[in-house]
From TrEMBL, chain B:
SUPFAM superfamilies per UniProt: MetI-like (SSF161098)
Domain ABC transmembrane type-1 as annotated: residue spans: 343-555
Protein name per Swiss-Prot or TrEMBL: Phosphate transport system permease protein PstA
Organism: Haloarcula amylolytica JCM 13557
Topology relative to the membrane: Multi-pass membrane protein
Keyword annotations of the record: Cell membrane, Membrane, Transmembrane, Transmembrane helix, Transport
Listed NCBIfam families: 3a0107s02c
């Protein structure tokens, strides 16, 4: 942020002809611009207030304990249990994390430590492009191309399944992990690497033993941001993961992957676009939305905290 | 520091093993980097194959075009890459500019076809100019009255224009007023300048109006730019004169060639003019002139290819993505389905976003970078705003959709699924991105520029307007275009605010229910028919991605061209 030693008032001797009108105008611009900046606070407040308003209506009719611990979600029978939706969200998050976190960190290591300038100039914009593809397109990839591919290689997946959706979510969040982790690794000063080499360590040892631990807080905060993105991802799961809320099947974990689930975001879309839905069912939309907002908001805060708090300061 | 203690002895004693391990590690990391890229590239190839069906063409057709277009262009590309880098950039820009220009032409053509007639545009622009004149005149006459000025700034455009481009805004205002029991008869009694022009018994023909209100201003801006760059008034005037001449010639000759005059004027404004200025600059500087061979070779190749295939009777492919797809509405039968109304919806949504989000976002960034105090109560508030913006950028898009649903539809009672609601909801979604990128652009302007301006007695606002904003503009534009790219592809908010699954008629007012490209694509994705799933859907995806690609490439070119070095 800019330090405020510069005064807004015109300096003492008035060079300009009409100081009073000018000062008033300066003040006006300042307030108009402040109003623009304050809009962002207004957005957050209106999200919380408007979502809470209908969510509270919902919770006066449905016991919050039942909502958060219920194992069945069936609007047609007015049964609102969040756990099946959470199962879907959890599955997507875990599978995509398994794909994206190691891949993203490895990519960051390559870009920050190994890549030549020429490779970087190709790979970095390439990864940015991955982040710029609309999520509905990823969803279509999953439904139309990945699922049939999984079927041809012999996996018993349904038409709508959580596996192909999660694979695409994973690919989508790779750039998020890689770019933030790479920033953290590039911030590790060269003197640390040199010290490592000076002790006779190989490049591999310097990378895994010095650079990655030194950048750990940045890497970790990128993980959390990526998870938060996976939790909030909507279109991929709407298109490819199906529309059946389902509890995790703990007795046969592998079978879970091949079935369709309905994560929270997908449930929100379905409730909203359903033709006939009761008033109570409609307000459940806001209860789910508020839960989602709180989860992602907390994760983002946590990520910022980790990045700020455990950052190793150099120099 | 977290370096591990070496367990025994020196490192590197077992150097062979270490060497292998290092190599394997590097290869793994490279594979990880490439994994996402390669898999998406493969998927894109599948989609492109479904959309264009190149293998439905005769082998001879493919061979002809490979020989006339692909091989020469590939050879040129290799040559530029190896030997003549500046020419490579010229080739890139001269091939890209017409594409961007034609995209803009398409956008404006859609605007004139669906949203407002040329006369309405003419009246609107004249009214705005008059409003600007009023504000300027007031500034001259009563320079001290700041509050009065605020009133004039707000009221002058309202009085002269009275509403937004579509006349339905007037209806909306009167209807809302009537619904609240406040019937001022606004629409009938206070006739704005715009409406007065609309009612004139004699108006110039369409092309004269377009020439006056679109071609000449844009040519004037280009002329001013050239004049500034070369410090030659003559060159600037030449640009304006030549553009006008080309435009008029086209208007006269166009009907003979079967080109509509309005389309011709748009093409001149958005494609011919920028390309002409750029090519002239390249020729005059004499740098990378060989790059001009690339677009020429491309056009020649296509012409020769079509002549040869026509003569030999090779049949071309039968792609899903063709002119018919771009210009027709969706349909139950895959062969007739098109994306046109959804494209119009997307264009109109972008207009709403540009008009609302862009000023607010840039304003917020200016405040945070140039005004925000760092101490005291306001300082705390500003820190809160900054943290809040960071967090808003991470809020899932579906939540913004829910916000749009709750705020605009349930509280304000605006029509469900209308363009304006969609634009505002998606606009709120990209607001934090616009703010953050504009902040970065403003921050990159060196402080010495500001100090110099203050030193000359400029006030803070004058410094911002005359020094900081012009310097930061390329960066702001880059960030905004990238954010708009994000906005075009967002689907979840559109679903939440109830954008139509598919519409037959393009919207022609901001309060009409509309569908947008990604929304339309999503509706197609639930069709089970393989000709939808592997045809229309793929064509829609490619259309959307092509628009995004052009926008992102534009942003990158702007960034590279004006990037501050050092």
């Amino acid at each position: 942020m800019r330090d405020n030693t510069m005064s807004t008032e015109t300096p003492g001797p008035n060079i300009t002809s009409r100081p009073s009108g000018r000062a008033a105008r300066e003040r006006m611009y300042r307030y108009v611009l402040l109003l623009c900046a304050a809009t962002s606070i207004l957005v957050t407040v209106s999200i919380v207030v408007l979502l809470a308003r209908d969510a509270i209506t919902f919770f006066t009719l449905v016991n919050p304990v039942d909502f958060f611990t219920g194992t069945e979600f069936l609007i047609s029978r007015n049964v609102y249990g969040l756990l099946p939706l959470l199962s879907g969200t959890l599955l997507v998050t875990v599978i995509s994390a398994v794909i994206a976190l190691p891949t993203g960190v490895a990519a960051a290591v390559y870009l920050s430590e190994y890549a030549s300038d020429q490779m970087r100039s190709v790979l970095k914009p390439g990864l940015e492009i991955l982040a710029g593809i609309p999520t509905v397109v990823y969803g279509i990839f999953a439904l139309v191309y990945v699922t049939p591919f999984l079927q041809t290689i012999g996996l018993p997946v349904n038409t709508f399944n959580i596996l192909s959706a999660s694979i695409m979510v994973g690919i989508m969040i790779i750039p998020m992990v890689s770019s933030l982790s790479e920033d953290a690794m590039s911030a590790v000063p060269d003197s640390l690497r040199q010290a490592g080499y000076g002790m006779g360590a190989t490049k591999f040892e310097v990378t895994t033993g010095v650079v990655v631990p030194a950048a750990a807080s940045g890497i970790f905060s990128s993980f959390i941001l990526a998870l938060s993105r996976a939790i909030g991802e909507t279109m991929i799961v709407v298109v490819a993961a199906g529309s059946r809320p389902r509890m995790l099947n703990l007795s046969d974990p592998l079978a879970n992957l091949f079935q369709g689930y309905q994560p929270m975001t997908a449930a929100m879309v379905q409730i909203n676009s359903a033709d006939s839905v009761s008033q109570l069912g409609f307000t459940s939309l806001f209860a789910i939305g508020l839960t989602l907002f709180v989860i992602t908001f907390l994760l983002n805060l946590l990520s910022n905290r980790i990045a700020a708090r455990y950052r190793e300061e150099y120099e | 520091m977290a370096t591990r203690e070496p367990e025994t002895g020196w490192h590197g004693e077992d150097s062979d093993v270490n060497h292998l391990r290092g190599r394997a590690f590097e290869a793994t990391c490279l594979a990880a980097t490439a994994f996402g890229l390669v898999s998406v590239l493969l998927l894109l190839l599948f989609v492109a194959n479904d959309a264009f069906r190149p293998f439905s063409a005769d082998a001879g057709w493919l061979a002809t075009y490979a020989a006339t277009v692909l091989v020469p262009l590939a050879a040129l590309a290799v040559y530029y890459y190896r030997l003549d880098e500046p020419a490579g950039e010229v080739a890139y820009v001269t091939s890209g500019l017409p594409v961007v220009g034609l995209l803009l032409t398409g956008g404006f053509a859609v605007l004139f076809i669906e949203l407002l007639s040329v006369l309405e545009w003419f009246a609107l622009l004249i009214s705005l100019v008059v409003a600007g004149g009023l504000i300027a005149a007031h500034g001259r006459l009563r320079p001290k009255a700041a509050l009065e000025r605020l009133a004039v700034v707000l009221l002058a455009p309202i009085v002269t224009v009275f509403g937004l481009p579509p006349t339905s805004f007037n209806r909306f205002v009167t209807d809302t007023a009537a619904a609240l029991g406040l019937d001022f008869g606004l629409y009938y009694r206070v006739i704005s300048l715009r409406e007065a022009i609309m009612m004139l018994p004699f108006v110039p023909t369409d092309w004269v109006m377009l020439l006056l209100t679109l071609v000449l201003p844009v040519a004037g801006a280009a002329g001013w730019f050239v004049e500034q760059r070369r410090e030659s008034r003559r060159d600037g005037l030449a640009v304006v004169g030549l553009t006008t001449a080309v435009a008029v010639v086209g208007v006269v000759a166009g009907p003979l060639l079967g080109i509509g005059t309005d389309v011709w004027l748009l093409v001149v404004t958005f494609a011919v003019l920028p390309l002409g200025v750029y090519v002239e600059g390249v020729l005059r500087r004499g740098e990378g002139v060989r790059g001009l061979a690339f677009p020429v070779a491309a056009v020649l190749g296509v012409v020769v290819g079509s002549v040869v295939t026509g003569a030999l009777g090779f049949a071309g492919p039968d792609p899903w993505l063709d002119w018919g797809f771009l210009t027709s509405a969706t349909s139950r039968t895959a062969a007739d389905a098109g994306i046109y109304p959804a494209m119009v919806g997307s264009v109109m949504m972008i207009i709403v976003i540009v008009l609302t989000t862009f000023p607010v976002g840039v304003g917020a960034a200016i405040y945070l970078e140039e005004y925000a105090p760092s101490q005291g109560l306001m300082g705390k508030f500003v820190t809160l705003i900054e943290i809040n913006i960071g967090n808003l950028a991470g809020v899932p898009s579906v939540v913004y959709g829910l916000l749009g649903l709750a705020l605009f539809i349930r509280v304000l009672q605006w029509p469900q699924g209308s363009v304006i609601v969609a634009g505002l909801a998606v606009g709120l979604l990209i607001l934090p991105i616009v703010i953050i990128s504009a902040q970065e652009a403003i921050r990159s302007v060196p402080d010495s520029f500001r100090q110099a301006s203050y030193g000359m007695g400029a006030t803070r606002w004058q410094t911002i307007r005359q020094v900081v904003l012009p310097e930061a503009l390329p960066g702001i534009l880059t960030g905004t275009i990238l954010a708009l790219g994000r906005a075009i592809g967002e689907t979840a908010p559109l679903l939440m605010i109830g954008a139509a699954a598919s519409v037959r008629l393009a919207p022609n007012s901001f309060f009409d229910v509309a569908s947008m490209m990604p929304r339309q694509i999503f509706s197609w994705s639930s069709e089970l028919d393989p000709s939808f799933r592997h045809g229309v859907l793929a064509a829609g995806v490619i259309t959307l991605l092509a628009v995004l690609l052009v926008m992102n490439a534009t942003a990158i070119v702007i960034r590279n061209r004006y990037q501050r070095t050092g």
